[in-house]
Amino acid sequence: MSNAASRDKIRRMTGISILLAVVVVLTLLGNFVRFGPFPITLALAPIIIGAAVYGASAGAILGFAFSLVVFITGVMGWDGGTVMLLMSASPVACVLVCLAKGTVAGWLAGLLYELLSKKNVHLGVIAAGIICPVTNTGIFIVGMLLFFNETLASWAGGQPILSYIIFGLTGVNFLVELAVNLVLASGITTIIKHVGGKKA
To answer: Less Cβ crowding at N or C end of the chain, within 10 Å?
Structure first.
C-alpha cells in the first residue's frame, strides 16, 4: 500500500471514528428530548455527513451505531420502557427492527447522496436529509405493523391504527427530525465540501 493510500485510509478511519463518537453522544442526549412518546433523533446529521463524505458503507456503520445505542439505552429503560415492552412481545423482531432502521437509513442516505451530488452537492445533502428520517421512521412503522400489531392496537386505545401512527406515535418526531435536517442542510453542505473537497 502506498503512503498516499495509507494516509487516506487513516484519515477515513479517523473521520468515521470522530463521527461515531458524535453519533453516540447525540443519541444519548436525545433520550432527554421528547416530542410525543419517543425520544427525538438528534444523530441523523452526523450520519448524513459520514455517508456523504465516506460513502454508503460509512453511513451504514454510523447508522448501526445509532441503532445499537438506541437499543441498549432502551433495554436500560431510558426510553420509558418501550424497547423492553417490545422485547417481551418478540425479542428477535425487536432487535431486528431496532438495528435495521438506522443501518438502512445511513446506507440509503449515502447511496442517494452519491447519486445526486454528481450534479449538485446541496441537492444531494437535501435528498439524503430527507431519505434518512423517512427510512428510519418508515422501517420502525413497518416493523410495528408486521410484528407488533397487537401492541399498536393497545397503544391506539380504539383509534384507527393508521391515524394513531401518523398523528400520535411518530408524526411529530418525524416532522421535527426532517425539519432539523433541512435547516442544517446548508451547514452540512459546507462541512462536506470542506472535508471531502467536493464542489457544488
So the answer is: N
Residue type, 79: D
E strand or H helix at 41: none
pLDDT at 198: 47
Cβ within 8 Å of residue 9, ≥6 positions away: 1
Beta bridge partners of 34: 39
* Least confident window among 1-10, 65-74, 87-96, 125-134: 1-10
Give kind and range of the element (H or E) at residue 193: helix 185-196
Top-level class of domain 3-196: mainly alpha
Average pLDDT estimate for 150-161: 88
36 within 8 A of 168, measured Cβ to Cβ: yes
* Burial class for 32, CB neighbours closer than 10 Å (0-12, 13-18, 19+): exposed
Contact 110, 128 (CB under 8 A): yes
Domain boundaries, the chain: 3-196
Query: pTM of the entire structure?
Result: 0.87
